[in-house]
Amino acid sequence: MNRIKKISLFIPLIVIVLMTSCVKDEVTSIAMSKSTMSINIAQTDSLIATIEVTGDISKFPITWTSSYPYVATVKNGKIQGLSTGKTTITAKSGNLTTVCEVNVTNEIYPTLHAGFLAYEGVNNPGISNLFVVGLAGLTDTMYVYINAPFSSTTSLPVAEYTLLTNLNSISDFVPFTINPGFYQDGNQYFSWYYGNFASPIINGSLKITGLNNNLYTIEVDLVDGYGNNIFGSYVGNLKYLDWSTISGAPSMKNVLKKQHFKF
User: Fold this and answer.
1) Global confidence as pTM
2) For the residues 250-256, what does the mean pLDDT come to?
3) How far apart are CA 102 and CA 176, in angstroms?
C-alpha cells in the first residue's frame, strides 16, 4: 500500500491597514468685516464674513439674519435700512457666529462743495420762472426745482423757498416755492441722490441767506420721500446754465443719469 502524505501548508494572511489621519469637517473661525455700522433709511451697505474651515468647505455656507428686519434687512451680506432703530446682523457658519450692530438713522448731513443754477424759463406765465439748483458732495447730489419771481432770469433772490404740497394746475407755481419730485415723459426726476439710492424731496425749505457777486450762502432743511431729514449748507458760486432755449427734459435727463455732477 502506497502511503500518501499530504502536507498542508498554512500561510497566514497578513493585512496591513494604513491609518491615515481623519480630517474633521468644521468651521474653526468666523469674522465680520465691521463690528458696527450706521446707515440711513433706504441706504445700502455691505458686510463680508470670512471663515476658516478644515475639511470640506462646501458643507459650510454662510447664513445671514437681522434681529429686527423691519429696521434693516440683510441678504448675502447686503444691508438696507428700512426704519430708524438698531438691529444686530448675524452671520453664521457651522456652529460659529459673528455679529455687526447696525444703527439706522434718518438724518443726513451732506458736505456740499459744488453747485450750478440752471434757468429753465417760464413756469407760470407772468408770475414765476423755473430754476434748477444743483448741489453736490462726495457721495450725494441734490436737485431742487425752484419757482422764482418772473423778473428773475440769471440769479435767485435772497429768500426762503418752501416746498409746494399741492400741484393741481399751473397757477400753483408761485414765487419762492420748491416743486417736489415729479414724473415727466415716463421718467421720474428725483430731487435727491445719496450714495446709491434716490428719492424726491417731499417737505422742507431751501434758504438763500446771502448773495454777493454770484457767491451764494444757502441753508438746506429738507425731507426726502423715505423720511430722511437732510441738513446742510453751501457757500460758493453757482455755475449759471441757460436751459430756456433748449428742450429741458432731455438736458435734465442727461444730468440726472450722471447723478453726481463735476466741474
Assistant:
1) 0.77
2) 49
3) 39
Domain that holds residue 152: 108-258
- Is there a single domain that holds both residue 30 and residue 112? no
Q: Which residue matches cell numbers 447723478?
A: 259
3-class DSSP assignment, residue 134? strand
- Distance, in Å, from the CA atom of 139 to the CA atom of 192, rounded to the nearest integer, reads 11
Model confidence pLDDT, tens digit, residues 224-243: 889 999 999 999 999 998 88
Q: Determine the Cα–Cα distance for residues 156 and 208; give it in Å rounded to an integer.
A: 8
Contact 135, 141 (CB under 8 A): yes
Q: Which residue would you say has higher pLDDT here, 155 or 201?
A: 155
Other CB atoms within 10 Å distance of the CB of residue 24: 7
Report how far apart, in Å, the C-alpha atoms of 262 and of each of 66, 188, 237 are: 38, 22, 14
Distance CA 155, CA 176 (A): 13
| 58 and 79 both lie in a single domain | yes
Q: Which grid cell sits at 118? A: 440752471
pLDDT at 20 over 60: no
Comparing 8-12, 34-38, 172-176, 254-258, the range with the smallest average pLDDT is: 8-12
Query: Which residues, in sequence order, are CB contacts of 251 under 8 Å at separation 6+?
Result: 243
Place of cell 448675524: 90
Asked if 202 and 163 count as a contact pair (C-beta separation under 8 A), the reply is: yes
Q: What pLDDT, on the 0 to 100 scale, is given for residue 2?
A: 41
Cell matching residue 109 = 448731513
Last residue of a domain, one of 83, 105, 127: 105
